[in-house]
Amino acid sequence: MKLFSRIDYFFDRLYTWRYNPLYQSGVIAIFLLLVAIATGTYLVFFYKVALPYQSVERIQNQIWLGAWIRPLHRYAADGSVVMAGYHMLRMFMQKRLWGARTLAWISGILLLGTLFFTGITGFMLVSDIHSKVLSTEIARLLDLLPLFSEPISSTFNGPLPLSRSFFFAILFIHISLPLGLGLLLWLHTSKLARPALLPPKKLMWGLLSLLLLVAVVLPTPLAPNADPHAMITRFPFNFFFTFWLPLSIKLSSLASLSLFIFSSSLFIAVPWLFKPSPEKQPAKSFVHEKSCTGCTSCYKDCPFDAIDMVPRSIGHGSAFVAKVDPSHCVSCGICAAACDPMGVGPAGRTGRDQIRDMENLLKNKIRLKETILVMGCQQSIAWPESMMRNPRFLFHTISCAGGLHSACLEHALKRGIAGIFIVSCPPRNCINREGPKWLMARLYQGHESSLNPTIDRDLVCVSPFGCMETLRAMEELKMFSEKIKQKHSPDMSKLPEKECAMEI
């Protein structure tokens, strides 16, 4: 994980967290896929199934369009599968793969596999020596399956060139598979509220410009035509789609197919292989129905569509109350911060629990008016020991910045804390998707369950940091501390206390 953090830090320095491509690997994969589909639409109009190699050659010789659209199509497809693979690896390293996220993981593996096979069929359409070796090897593997009455590998080993019906079938598959990608993408995001499907516009234009530049400067070469009479001993292969081809040729068809089935099964089984034991799993959110006012705030804010509004069964008040679906809940705790009466959230992390924990933290502290409370998301930076021992700062770790209830901040300021410095993940790298977004909305934009309007917002600072940005965080904390020293702090004891009693 440290390696990923260092890479993130490097890209943060280059692009800032707003445009860090590694934080947006999934949506970049979708964007590059759309570029591949758009360029492929142009290419298909010039492709002839009767003369596959010659038609690709003619496209290659179109100086003003085909000469750069074909490499753009190739590089966009390469980039899409690379970013999809990195997205999968990132989710694995962040442990976002079990429980409510199981469906997203499995559909993501199917998405990657379908994208992978779409690219393979594209290479088969070229009818060069790479295409022939690839088609022959796939036919050799398919012969092991009970799909055909006669071995199909003999079709690729005869003295005659492949028929137009073969290329028509491959072209049909190549065009049809993106429709399946659309359905899988819908399934992949079906448990998310407000799923992001495209990167920011500036990043999209930057990526497209980079692809165009690479396509013009480094056009994709066209391998020699496949001669049915020639023995192919050396052939080019694509590092992203056909990297497996040299190894597969050397193995027996049974060994190659077994390796493919085993690796695919292993990827699909990951959510169950790495699922923590029940006692180590975080508690799911719950709703105290008698406290629920039916305001729909938690229902609207939940990033995972885990909360529904259902008819009230006990108590009086609103006709509908919130209800948590445990199969969708990932225990992010964002609903706890959304609830003004503090009646929803994971066990031990509701608004009332947060106020109780804050009181325990401050109970025996002295000279609070000279102390800065530093609240940090557990996924963000790790403070050095020298800072932790500094009596000027009081550190408190929270599970997610988005789950921090504004009443907890009010309570700390009422008790005399000089200022509050909140460290969150970069918004586009939050493992709970929208934690920093809702925190900022409640503190500064008047969102539901917002911070008391009488509180001076200068006493609260929210800053996003990556895991490796400790030095920058220390600098900003020291600057905030100096600012608080110079600021005349109002008497917070006159603020009204939020009611924390709960009717059982």
Explain what you see.
A 4-stranded parallel β-sheet has the order 6-5-7-8, sandwiched between helices. It is elongated. It has helices at residues 2-19, 25-44, 52-60, 66-93, 102-124, 129-142, 164-188, 201-217, 245-250, 253-268, 270-273, 297-301, 334-338, 351-362, 385-388, 406-414, 435-444, 470-486, and strands at residues 285-287, 307-311, 320-324, 344-346, 372-377, 393-398, 419-424, 460-464. It is built from 18 helices and 8 strands. It has 504 residues and is of the alpha/beta class.
Summarize, please.
The chain is an alpha/beta fold and 504 residues long.
Helices, strands, pairings?
Elements: H1 2-19, H2 25-44, H3 52-60, H4 66-93, H5 102-124, H6 129-142, H7 164-188, H8 201-217, H9 245-250, H10 253-268, H11 270-273, E1 285-287, H12 297-301, E2 307-311, E3 320-324, H13 334-338, E4 344-346, H14 351-362, E5 372-377, H15 385-388, E6 393-398, H16 406-414, E7 419-424, H17 435-444, E8 460-464, H18 470-486
Parallel strand pairs: 5-6, 5-7, 7-8
Antiparallel strand pairs: 1-4, 2-3
Helix pairs in contact: 2-4, 4-5, 4-8, 5-7, 14-16
